[in-house]
Amino acid sequence: MELQKTMQRSLRSEIQKRLKENGYTLSKLSELSGIGTGHLSEMLNSSPSRAITVNQLDAMATAFGHAPGWLYELYPEECLSEGKISRPRLVPYLVRCAEIGRKDCIKAVVSNLLENPKNISILFSVAEQLFQSGKQKESVFFYELVIDNEKDSYSDQFVMSQYRLFRAVQGTNTEENWKAVIRFDSYWKRLPENVQLDALLQLANVCFMMYRWKDVEKYADELRNLATIVYENELLRRTSPKANDLLKTERHLVVYYGQGFLLKAAALKKQRLYEEAKQYIQGYADLGWFEILDETGQQEVEKFRVWAKINSYTLDMMLGNYEILPECITFLEDHPGEIFPALVTIMECANKYGFCIDEVLERFSEYTSYTEDDLNGLSASRHFRFRYQKAIYELQRERFNIGINETLRSLALADKMNHYQDFKQCVSLFEEHRHHASNSQIIAYNKIIEGGTQTNESSVTLVSSSFGIL
Fold this sequence. Notes:
Helix 18 (339-353) packs parallel to helix 20. This protein has helices at residues 2-8, 11-22, 26-33, 37-44, 54-63, 87-100, 103-113, 120-132, 136-149, 156-168, 174-184, 193-209, 213-238, 253-270, 274-285, 295-318, 325-333, 339-353, 358-363, 377-396, 400-417, 420-432, 439-449; strands spanning 80-81, 84-85. It is mainly alpha-helical. Strands 1-2 form a two-stranded antiparallel sheet. Strand 1 and strand 2 (84-85) form a beta hairpin. The protein starts with a helix and ends in a 21-residue tail after the last helix.
C-alpha cells in the first residue's frame, strides 16, 4: 500500500495537497509566491497543464514554508516526457540541484540522459552555467561526465571540458595542481586560440607555484609566441573592410603578451639568472606601442610599467645593489597594492646580504598579515615564501621567539599546500633551533607534524590568473 501511494505521487498532486492542507486559494498562493493567479491556474487546473519552472517551484516551496529543493525528486516529469527532453527546463533544474546539493536528483536524471550520446551537450551546458556563475566546484561532476562519455576527444565540448576541469580543480594543494597540469597538457593546443592564451597563462602560474621553473619558461615562451601571432593577425584583420570587434579573450590581449615576458623573467630570476631576467623585464616595461589598446588595455600597460620598475629594483638588490632599497621603498609607497609581493624579494635579499630591514618591516607591517580566506594558490605561495624568509631573518638576529613562530606559520602553510620540499625545509629549520622553542611552540609543532592543519578538499580556491612581482 505504501509503495502504491509513492507511485501515485506527482508534482501537481503534491502542490494541490499542500494548498488544501494550508487552506490556500490560488489567489493566496499567488500573493505568497509572486506567481500570477492565471499562471497558477494553467499549471494546476488546465489540461494539458502549463509547465512549471524550477524557479516557480522554489517560489511555491517558500510560500508553503519548505526549504529550497522541495519536490525536486518529482520535477523531472516537467522535463522528460515520452522520450522528449525539455532542455530549457532541464538545464536550470540540474544547475539548481547542483547549487543546493541534491545529488540524488542529479544522478537519477543523468542515468537517463546518458542513454543517448546526443544528451552530453546538455550536461556540458549545465557545467558551463555553473562554472561561469562562480560554482566551479559544483561544475566538476558535469565536466567529468562529458569527458568520460564524449567519444570524440577533438570535439569542442570535450576539449573545453578538459580546460574548465583544469581550472576548476586548482587550489592550494600543489600535488593535485600538478596532476591537473599533466592531465590537461596534451589538450590545450586543441582549444581555440583565444582560449589557448588563458590556458597557457594558467599553466605557467601553476608551475610557478610548484617551483618548476623550466616548465614556467616553456609555457611563457609558448604564451609570448602565441600572443605575438594573435596580435599580428588582429592588426591584419582590422585593415579588412569586414573587420569585426577585437578577438574575445578572457583578459586584454596585452596581458598575455606582457605576461609572456614577465613569467619568463620570473623563472630566470628563480634560477638566479639575473642578467637574463633583466632582458625580459624590458620586454614588458613599456607596452605603450601596443596598437590595440582601449581604456582597459591602457590600465594593463600601466600595471606592467609598475611591475617592471619594482622587479628591476629587486633584481638589482639580488645582484648586491641593496643601496637602492630606499628608492624602491619610496616607489612602493605610491603603489601599495604591490608592497607585499615586493617585500617577499626584499626579505630574500636581506637574508642573502645580511642587511637590516627592521624599519621596512615595521613601516609595512599592515601588508604582511593574512587570513585563511586570503589564501588562494598564488597568495599562499607568496605568504609561505615571506614567512619562511622572515623566520630565517629573525633567527639570524637571535630573536628566537619571533623566528620560531614564523617557522611554525611557514610549516602550516607548506602543509596546507601539500608542498613536501617546503615542509621538509621548515622541519629542518625548526629542529635546528628546537632548543630555543617554548613548550607551547613545541606542542604547536607536533600538532602540525601529526597533520593537525591539513585542509580538506572543500577549501579549494582558484589560482589567480596572473601576477606581477617576481
